[in-house]
Amino acid sequence: MYQLELMRDLGNEGFRTAISISGSLIEQLLMWRPDVIDLLKELIRRGIIELVAEPYHHSLASIISRDLFLEELRDHVEINKSLFGQVPITYENTEFLYRNDWGALMEKAGAAIVLTEGVDWVLGWRSPTYLYGAPNLRIKLLLRHYRLSDDIGFRFSNRSWDQWPLTADKYMAWIRATPPGDFVLIGLDFETFGEHHWRESGIFEFLAWLPKEARRADVTFIQPSSLVNEEPIDYLDIPSTISWADVEKDDSAWQGNELQRIALEHVVSIGNLMRSYGLEKTWRYLLMSDHYYYMSMKYGPSGEVHNYFNPFNSAFTAFKAIEDVVVGITCALANARKDRFYGIK
Amino acid sequence: MVRKLILFLEMHQPRRLKYGVLNKLCDLRSDEINEVGISSIIFNDEVNKEILNRVADRSYVPTRVNEGFG
Question: Where are the domains of chain B?
Answer without folding.
Answer: 21-63
